[in-house]
């Protein structure tokens, strides 16, 4: 069963420029993806090339990535601010080819203290009674 979630994405550099008064709110490059695939087999937040371009992200480095097609080089891009289920954080993103959906990996879920429930989809971590707790163990 494939689970999806709504995710709001914004260029983090633009957010910083906005907070410092250098740009207006409408100049922040951002997008809402209504059906990002929650893939607990993936590690990172992965965005198709068209979205990295739309958000104006900058290539930071290249890294080998284990995919269903074997090990391939993927580009790591500058961070985005992302929001899922009203919880917000930041992360660098991995670019995937256009045609691949936005992938929300397990690191993203851990950052936001979310769990993937087979029946209900994304839920707040039941061990924390709905409270957003960062585990440092």
Structure description:
This protein is mostly beta strands and 137 residues long. The protein has one domain: Acid Proteases (Cathepsin D, subunit A, domain 1, Beta Barrel), CATH 2.40.70. Helices cover 15% and strands 48% of the residues. It is built from 3 helices and 9 strands, in the order βαββαββββαββ. It has helices at residues 12-19, 49-54, 106-111, and strands spanning 3-11, 30-38, 45-48, 59-67, 70-84, 87-96, 103-104, 114-117, 121-124. The strands form 2 sheets. Strands 1-2-7-3-6-5 form a 6-stranded mixed beta barrel. A two-stranded antiparallel ribbon has the order 8-9. The longest helix has 8 residues, at 12-19. It starts with a strand and ends in a 13-residue tail after the last strand.
